[in-house]
Amino acid sequence: MEAAYKNDMIAEIDLMNNKKLYCVKDGILIEHDLPDYGETLIITLGGKVDRLETTVKRKVCKGVNGG
Predict the structure, then answer these.
(1) In tens digits, what is the pLDDT along the chain, a chain of 67 residues?
(2) pTM here?
C-alpha cells in the first residue's frame, strides 16, 4: 500500500496503555505519561495544541500511617 502523500509519517502507539496520552504538534507525535491521580489539561492557542499542563494529586487512603 502506497502512502497518499510523500510526507506521510507512520507512528506506532499502544492503544491498550491507558497511562499515556498522545498528542500531535507541528507534525511531531508527543507521548505524555499520565499521573495515577490528578489531571492533564490540553491548552490550545489558535486551534492548535500549545501545551499540556499536568497537576499531580495524591490519594489518601484510610488506615495508612495509623489514620
Answers:
(1) 455 566 677 888 888 999 999 988 888 888 999 988 899 999 999 988 899 999 998 878 876 565 5
(2) 0.62
Is the distance from CB of 33 to CB of 18 less than 8 angstroms? no
Residue 31, CA distances (Å) to 21, 23, 64 in order: 6, 7, 33
65 grid coordinates? 500511617
Number of residues written out for the chain: 67
Grid cell listed for 36: 495515577
Distance CA 20, CA 35 (A): 9
Q: CB-based contacts of 13: which residues, under 8 Å, 6+ apart?
A: 20, 22, 29, 31
